[in-house]
Write a structure and sequence with these properties.
mainly beta, Neuraminidase, nine-stranded antiparallel sheet, 10 helices, 10% helix, binds MU-OXO-diiron, binds calcium ion, PhoX family phosphatase, PhoX, TAT_signal
Length: 629
């Protein structure tokens, strides 16, 4: 491994290294007595009107009681620490698509010694699968799936992960972005339909349009695009979403790590620091591709950090970056219709101490009606949580922020700070329950919340009892949920509680033991991916510490669990291979197959000893072929 090779680090770990930021903050320390009075230590995490919605399973903390009323159709499984996937008895899994697998028959097969060639990198299934959604196009099943980042140590095995020329950069750029692929179930199970006319790779070099309030703004103009309305590519595509009109939403997260300066004297423009854009990129792109050299193209980073809409039914369509949805480290996009037909999109900004957002369209969606303005003309809000279990969505307007509309769209983090939004423990996926008017957000962890650290955004990130972020040095994470006023996702007020506070009751006897619906049988940390199935069960995927030691003892590898929103019961359904994050979930049209993403596994997953590790989508089915969601 060369000095610059940080491919053994996840993006989150790498980003943390860019942000040491220790700084004493003057604040009133949280006292355990207050938490005890509030009921946290007795495991009650619901309060206010939200508690009325919760069943007695969570409040009583009785796993046995919850078991008796389980809605789960599976027998929970134990943790695992090995290099494969485990699912419950009566279920089977197998790979459907692996990094390097051809989407087109002209792609060269993956070579164990050299990886994927530069000529084929955008003709194969990309690296590090993440958020995905399934669509039906003319009766054919299509999966759109993100490729979040690359692992040069695996992708450039002949160079020990070192990026040494422009071809290396192009190879890596083409392994990221999005795959749109037709899949079909044959005698040997699900697989890619090679050469389908719906197959498409979208990479860091695919032309796309910029729309919304920031389109054409001087901060988005470059020498290659003086109009500021077209950009090449999307990157660090993390979570995803689906619009009511059947398009795919892909979310640009840690884009900052791709930009660097070849000029040591380059002075970073305003806005770089808050978005973590530093002097050196992670993979040397700036040395071989001037677009990523901030000293040559200082506005290029302003053109990333958005949500991109892709039409999976039209491979010739131009993807659209919608600036009205804000610029930050977008995790995913949970779109839902308000009762009056307005489109609501909930979003998280995955950085410690950043915010939760939602967008509400001005126009309404009608099936078959026009949709082109719905993600460009609307109002962006940031979430403010009160300690009395109420909250509000604060509109980010020129009046409330002192910023122009275009500036709000480009420097959304600053706009949310200006209105005093609540700093959060790294908002990851948002999920909206299809059978109840409620939303959930995974707050994955925040190792630097607390008195000794400033958050990345520059706002005090302090633990406050009865806030959605109640712990200092939050190593386990929690899931907050909210109920919009009047059962209307467009409403500007809500009530909230914590659905679960992850922890380890076998090790801790304080807040770190977690809430009452955490027990020795379902231990996990760092909830991240979340999707509801059609029956209203919440599927929770983790991206955390898989050491299985000390405070993480009994948690094993990263995993996927199912949660009952009503009883609070949470049970383990799937365990991932060593080193991996379980992320991305969707279903076949008949719900008889669950597609699950495995990101950055260690070798030998999935092909065996001595072979390259390959991030994969796997199918999970019941042996009796009954629905799995
Ligand atoms: Fe790409 Fe925040 O996970
Ligand atoms: Ca994630
Ligand atoms: Ca994560």
């Amino acid at each position: 491994m060369n000095d610059r090779d940080t491919s053994h680090l996840s993006w989150d770990e790498w980003d943390e290294l860019q942000r040491p930021a220790p700084e004493n903050i003057d604040f009133d320390r949280v006292v355990d007595e207050a938490l005890t009075r509030r009921g946290f230590l007795s495991g009650v995490v619901a309060f206010g009107s939200g508690a009325a919605v919760m069943g007695t399973g969570l409040l009583s903390g009785s796993s046995a009681q919850a078991q008796a009323t389980s809605r789960f159709g599976f027998t929970p499984i134990p943790i695992a620490t090995d290099s494969t996937i485990h699912v419950p008895d009566g279920y089977t899994w197998y790979p459907v698509a692996k990094w390097g697998e051809p989407l087109f028959s002209d792609a060269e097969p993956l070579d164990q010694a050299t990886g994927v060639s530069v000529a084929s990198a955008d003709r194969v299934f990309g690296e590090n699968t993440d958020g995905m959604e399934a669509f039906v196009v003319d009766g054919r099943q299509v999966i759109a799936v993100n490729h979040e980042y690359v692992n040069p140590g695996i992708n450039l095995p002949h160079q020990d992960g070192e990026v040494i020329n422009a071809d290396d950069v192009l190879t890596l750029q083409n392994m990221q972005g999005v795959t749109v692929m037709e899949v079909a179930e044959g005698d040997n199970g699900w697989g890619i339909v090679v050469d389908s006319d719906l197959n498409r790779r979208i990479t860091q070099n695919t032309p796309m349009a910029i729309t919304g309030p920031a389109a054409g703004h001087p901060l988005l103009q470059t020498a290659a695009d003086p109009a500021g309305t077209t950009v090449l590519g999307t990157m660090n595509n993390c979570g995803a979403g689906k619009t009511p009109w059947g398009t795919y939403l892909t979310c640009e997260e840690n884009f900052n790590g791709y930009f660097g300066s070849t000029d040591a004297d380059f002075a970073a423009p305003d806005g770089y620091a808050r978005y973590g854009i530093g002097a050196e990129s992670r993979y040397n792109y700036e040395k071989f591709d001037a677009r990523f050299d901030t000293s040559a193209n200082p506005n290029e980073p302003h053109r990333f950090g958005y949500i991109v809409e892709i039409d999976p039914a039209d491979p010739s369509s131009t993807p659209i970056k919608h600036t009205a949805l804000g610029r930050f480290k977008h995790e995913n996009a949970a779109a839902v219709l308000a009762p009056d037909g307005r489109v609501v999109v909930y979003m998280g900004d995955d950085e410690r101490g950043e915010f939760m957002y939602k967008y509400v369209s001005n126009g309404v969606y009608t099936p078959g009606g026009p949709t082109s303005e719905l993600l460009d003309d609307g109002q962006l809000y940031a979430a403010k949580f009160n300690t009395d279990a109420t909250g509000e969505w604060v509109a980010l307007t020129p009046e409330s922020t002192g910023m122009e509309a275009a500036e709000i769209a480009i420097f959304t983090r600053m706009a949310a700070s200006a209105v005093g939004a609540t700093t959060m423990d790294r908002p990851e996926w948002v999920a909206v329950n299809p059978v109840a008017v409620e939303g959930y957000c995974a707050l994955t962890n925040n190792s630097r919340r607390g008195p000794d650290f400033a958050n990345a955004g520059g706002d005090p990130a302090v633990a406050v009892p009865n806030s959605p972020n109640p712990r200092d040095a939050n190593r386990y994470g929690q899931i907050v949920r909210w109920w919009p006023a009047d059962d209307d996702h467009a409403a500007t007020t809500f009530t909230w509680d914590l659905y679960v506070m992850a922890g380890n009751p076998t090790v801790h006897d304080d807040l770190n033991k977690g809430s009452a619906n955490v027990n020795a049988g379902n231990l996990f940390n760092s909830p991240d991916g979340m999707m509801f199935d059609s029956t209203g069960l919440l599927w929770i995927q983790t991206d955390g510490d898989d050491s299985n030691e000390e405070g993480f003892a009994g948690m094993g590898n990263n995993q996927m669990l199912a949660g009952d929103p009503v009883t609070g019961q949470i049970e383990r359904f799937l365990t991932g291979p060593n080193g991996s994050e379980v992320t991305g979930l969707t279903w076949s049209a008949d719900k008889r197959t669950m597609f699950v993403g495995i990101q950055h596994p260690d070798a030998p997953f999935p092909d065996g000893e001595g072979l390259l590790a390959r991030s994969s989508i796997v199918a999970v089915k019941r042996d009796d072929n009954q629905p799995v969601g």
